[in-house]
Design goal:
Layout: E1 4-8, E2 11-15, H1 18-25, H2 30-34, H3 42-54, H4 59-62, H5 72-79, H6 83-86, H7 94-101, H8 108-114, H9 120-127, H10 132-141, E3 146-147, E4 151-152, E5 159-162, H11 171-183, E6 190-193, H12 200-216, E7 223-225, H13 229-237, E8 245-248, H14 253-258, H15 263-276, E9 286-290, H16 294-297, H17 306-318, E10 324-328, H18 340-356, E11 361-364, H19 375-387, E12 392-395, E13 400-401, E14 406-407, H20 411-421, H21 427-435, H22 453-462
Helix pairs in contact: 1-3, 5-17, 7-9, 9-17, 9-18, 10-18, 12-13, 13-15, 17-18, 18-19
Catalytic activity: ethanolamine = acetaldehyde + NH4(+)
Pathway: Amine and polyamine degradation; ethanolamine degradation
GO molecular function, one term: ethanolamine ammonia-lyase activity
Length: about 475
């Protein structure tokens, strides 16, 4: 491992290895400070960026930031690297890579072609040299299409995950929240429940209710109960209606072990879900969630800054051709992302890196109540992400998740984004909304009065469960 030096602010700064350069070059955030990895001054941060800009991209193939011998995520990154896809950019430095990404030459086709040749560390490195507008401009050019019962990631589209969580997993309460979201035109990415009781029988009951609701109204979407992957395997063995397999993932083997998973169990679940052949327009069957700070909170970060180790999680995700990947950007808390500014920056970083690596990237635009953030910050982030071409966002009733006790986006927020930025839902879902007469002549979601006969009937049917 070679040391690196640069001068900034009249002082010579030395960095012992590649991961110390990456850490010091990162925009300020509380998690890196907590871990003792952050730059000690703004001058040192600038010096680290000088070093990073001049590093050849090949450096990240020659020096593993987590040792190959002890980490299966590193082995996955190195062993699956596509040298042919990398060849067109192999001569570039990190700074040169930034310039190429921002150029007209790097259009959607060119970005898709090089994606298999970009390692997570390369993506993380160039991200650290970019302003927010750079992250938006490049991510907007990336086009990643995935499908199951509808098509996600098309240009001019914004999908939404309808998240109808309930503190006691009451089937009637979940069904009513689901209906509420559907009447606002949300739910094309997935109708996804975080179960309060993570046991197999309860998850089966939730899945059966969602599948019955989907089939009753011929909704072109997919459902998911976000239970552990080992539960999903058991649920599939019992013949329950599993559309997507969910799992939280991280960027090191040790952090994934903390989640109770490894690559082998993910492969087994992926194969099991594929064998069900439940998709109609595609067979992308995996749903992954990530978030900056996960590896650090498990003391499994190997001295990496939290943005770099987060990006390594995307290598795990892309190995399984997922339908959905999202960063739960402000969920872990202010110990890792202290305030609205840090949350906004992290959301744009994660989306950029995920799209650059070829993932259908979404975001849970969220924060906890003890963070120095508010809903105005979330308004800013959701607008910026939509401009950046985010694949999907998460929406919950009233922007307040009453089971997980955090603040996210509401169904109304999705309507704002569709109105102001002109984005539409997945095409199959848009057609369904029109068939259900839920849109007016201008293409807007119709305001239905509470006494509307259809609403009364739908509510009665939805709440008849349980």
């Amino acid at each position: 491992m070679a040391s690196h030096t640069a001068t900034a602010g009249g002082e010579r700064h030395r960095f012992d290895d590649l991961k110390s350069v990456l850490a010091a070059a990162t925009p300020r955030r509380s998690g890196d400070e907590l871990a003792g990895l952050a730059a000690s001054s703004d001058a040192q941060r600038v010096a680290a960026r000088f070093v990073l800009a001049d590093l050849p991209l090949r450096s990240f193939l020659n020096e593993a930031v987590v040792p190959y011998e002890v980490d299966e995520v590193t082995r996955l990154i190195i062993d699956t690297h596509d040298a042919a896809a990398f060849a067109p950019i192999a001569h570039l430095t990190v700074g040169g890579f930034r310039e190429w990404l921002l150029s007209h030459e790097a259009d959607a086709a060119a970005l898709a072609a090089v994606a298999p040749g970009i390692t997570p560390e390369m993506a993380a490195a160039v991200c650290k040299l970019m302003r927010n507008q750079d992250l938006i401009a490049v991510a907007r050019k990336c086009r990643v299409i995935a499908g199951f019962r509808n098509t996600l990631g098309l240009e001019g589209r914004l999908a939404t995950r309808l998240q109808p969580n309930h503190p006691t997993d009451d089937l009637r309460g979940i069904a009513a929240a689901t209906l509420d979201g559907l009447l606002y035109g949300t739910g094309d990415a997935v109708i996804g429940i975080n179960p309060a009781s993570d046991n197999v029988p309860n998850c089966i009951a939730l899945l059966e209710m969602l599948d019955e609701l989907r089939q009753r109204y011929s909704i072109p979407t997919q459902s998911c109960v976000l239970t552990h992957v080992t539960n999903a395997l058991e649920i599939m063995k019992r013949g329950a209606p599993v559309d997507l397999v969910f799992q939280s993932i991280a960027g090191t083997e040790a952090a994934n072990r903390g989640f109770g998973i490894d690559l082998a169990i993910l492969r087994e679940s992926h194969e099991a879900a594929l064998s069900l052949k439940r998709g109609t327009v595609g067979q992308n069957v995996m749903y992954f969630e990530t978030g900056q700070g996960a590896a650090l909170s498990a003391d499994a970060h190997h001295g990496l800054d939290q943005q770099t180790v987060e990006t390594r999680a995307y290598a795990v995700a892309r190995a399984f051709n997922p339908l959905l990947v999202n960063t739960v950007v402000g969920f872990i808390g202010p110990e890792y992302l202290y305030d609205g500014k840090q949350i906004i920056r992290a959301g744009l970083e994660d989306h950029f890196c995920g799209k650059l690596l070829g993932l259908p990237m979404g975001c849970d635009v969220c924060y906890t109540n003890h963070a120095e953030a508010d809903q105005d910050d979330m308004d800013t982030l959701m607008t910026l992400l939509t401009v950046a071409g985010v694949t999907f966002l998460i929406a919950v009733p009233g922007a307040d998740d009453v089971m997980l006790n955090y603040q996210s986006l509401s169904f109304h927020d999705a309507l704002y984004l569709r109105s102001v930025l002109g984005v539409k839902a997945a095409p199959e879902f848009e057609t369904w909304l029109e068939q259900m007469d839920l849109k007016d002549r201008s293409g807007r979601i119709r305001a239905l009065p509470p006494q509307d006969e259809r609403v009364v009937r739908l509510i009665a049917e939805a709440t008849s469960h349980g």
